[in-house]
Write a structure and sequence with these properties.
About 35% of the residues lie in helices and about 10% in strands. It contains three helices and three strands. The chain has a three-stranded antiparallel β-sheet. The longest helix has 11 residues. It starts with a strand and ends in a 22-residue tail after the last helix.
Length: about 90
């Protein structure tokens, strides 16, 4: 099955973020799924690091859907943040 893939620049435009933000998300493992195409192959035919990064449109759509907050259900600004200190009684 063929899935439509787009470049990092097109994916960043689709999400409305800078291409460097996508690079940071990849490094941290928090962004949308991506495909790393090998740039060259070594002696043992294993792909070397680097290469071309592309994104499947389905992955970008799923990423946006996962982050979508329903109308009228805004999360509290501090939701998900660790507490700085605990009060003792």
């Amino acid at each position: 099955m063929f899935r439509k893939c787009i470049s990092t620049n097109a994916a960043s435009a689709y999400l409305g973020v800078d291409p460097q933000v996508l690079a940071q998300w990849r490094h941290r493992g928090i962004g949308p799924g991506y495909v790393r195409l090998p740039s060259t192959f070594g002696r043992n035919r294993a792909p070397k690091r680097g290469g071309i990064i592309i994104y499947q449109v389905e992955e970008l759509e799923a990423f946006v859907a996962h982050l979508t907050v329903p109308a009228g259900r805004m999360p509290h600004p501090t939701a998900g943040r660790p507490r700085s200190r605990v009060c003792a009684d």
